[in-house]
Amino acid sequence: MVFIFTPVMNESEVKKHIKGYTGFIKENEGEILEEDFWGMKQLAYPIQKKTTGIYFVTEYKGTGELVDALELKAKRDSSVLRFLTVRLDKYAIKYNADKRAGLVGRNKKVKNKPQENKSDNQAGDGKAADSKPQGGK
């Protein structure tokens, strides 16, 4: 779920609201998988005469009743400019799990590549192996 909070709030108020939403998810038998605070971002278009918003993304597991209750809570909260709930399919869930494990994405863990031995590239007579043959077409 993506939340866009009003930019008028200070950092402590935003953290209080985030704790409120994550606590609400946990109280209603939901499981938080990941939280990502994006911070202040420019909006594509003005919302309630505001051109910036504070973004927060959370991935959680829960029932349909939890989603309904969470959306109702966000609709009633005047500090939330917009919110977006997305249901992930099995491929997106697998991708996100792999991303958290460091198998894909920006923080992908790269295995060490074996170093090429430069002595293999040179012939025994001192000439490089990729030199052109003499006298042929």
List keywords for this structure.
137 residues; alpha+beta; Alpha-Beta Plaits; 4-stranded antiparallel sheet; 3 helices; 4 strands
State the helical fraction: 25-40%
> What is the level 1 CATH name?
Alpha Beta
CATH architecture: 2-Layer Sandwich
Count all strands and give the number. 4
* Shape call: globular
Q: What summary fits the major beta sheet?
A: 4 strands, antiparallel
| CATH homology superfamily name | Ribosomal protein S6/Translation elongation factor EF1B
Class per helix and strand makeup: alpha+beta
Low-pLDDT runs of 5+ residues are: none
C-alpha Rg (nearest Å): 26 Å
Stated plainly, the CATH topology is called Alpha-Beta Plaits
Following the backbone from N to C, one meets helices and strands in this order, namely: EHEEHEH
Query: How many structural domains in the coordinates?
Result: 1
Mean pLDDT: 85
Strand neighbour order, sheet with most strands: 2-3-1-4
Percentage of β-strand residues:
25-35%
Distance between the termini: 67 Å
